[in-house]
Amino acid sequence: MGVLKKFEQRLEGLVNGTFAKVFKSEVQPVEIAGALQRECDNNATIWNRDRTVVPNDFIVELSAPDFERLSPYSGQLGDELAGMVRDYAKQQRYTFMGPIKVHLEKADDLDTGLYRVRSRTLASSSSQQGAAPAAPAPGRPAPGGYGYPPAAPAAAPPMPSAPPPGSRPGGYGYPQPATQRPAAAPMSGGRTRHWIEINGTRHQISRPTLVLGRSTEADVRIDDPGVSRRHCEIRTGTPSTIQDLGSTNGIVVDGQHTTRATLRDGSRIVVGSTTIIYRQAEG
Fold first, then answer.
1. Can you tell me the distance from the alpha carbon of 102 to that of 46, in angstroms, rounded to the nearest whole number?
2. Exposed, middle or buried: residue 48 (CB in 10 Å: 0-12, 13-18, 19+)?
3. How far apart, in Å, do the first and last CA atoms of the chain sit?
4. Element (H, E) at 127
5. Domain count, the chain
6. How many Å apart are CA 262 and CA 281, to the nearest integer?
7. Last residue of a domain, one of 72, 91, 120
8. Of 66, 89, 120, at which residue does a domain stop?
9. 161: which of 62, 150, 189, 204 lies 20 to 30 Å off by Cα?
10. Mean pLDDT of 192-199
11. Could you read off the pLDDT of 153-195 as tens digits, one per residue?
């Protein structure tokens, strides 16, 4: 069973259906959970062959209406989301520098149903071994990172377990690899291959369009009550795109509700309670 499905099942039995009522707002817990997974993937730092470190401190920014609905349950929801991150990290063999925390915050610039996820890596006191906490990387904060103003370089020496010099700078003083899953090297004269992954199963996209839905007439059938008969359509090209086909519950692409979006290798699509990974590679 997938990590997101387990998360949903735990949430359903949390407080006798209270969450089912409060989550009638646009933002659904599984969407936030999917965004946290992607935040881990996008900010994973390879320290050595056996250790890949991901953020452990997350803030989920919500619109004022969604925050008002969810804030009374923020403690329980934060614990469940942190547990989901822990399960996902175990599955991906990620490690953390400190305890996992997930907080909810209100963002007045967001409309109902929209949210942002920010993250950083915070080392526990035992991991720091007395060293000062790592300061945010200088310059303008990257998307997904905490929007704190740049801090002066710490006077304390770096932690003994710091990555080797020459690594590409990442968020909050931790080097970040160029990509978490390197794409295959382009083959001379090759063409781009497109496919999607659903619950570990690969579905090749061999035509210009691919319809996803619950109907047997869809190109890829998704057995999910939250998915419409003809839910959405992927169009391959330069770039590839996804289009909502008037579905009941809509689509979420890389953490954002949308009706149409550009896809990149690794884009995470949520339809109903099902997560789809879009992939493309040369050759």
1. 23
2. exposed
3. 32
4. helix 125-128
5. 2
6. 16
7. 120
8. 120
9. 150
10. 91
11. 334 334 434 444 443 333 333 333 333 333 333 434 468 899 9
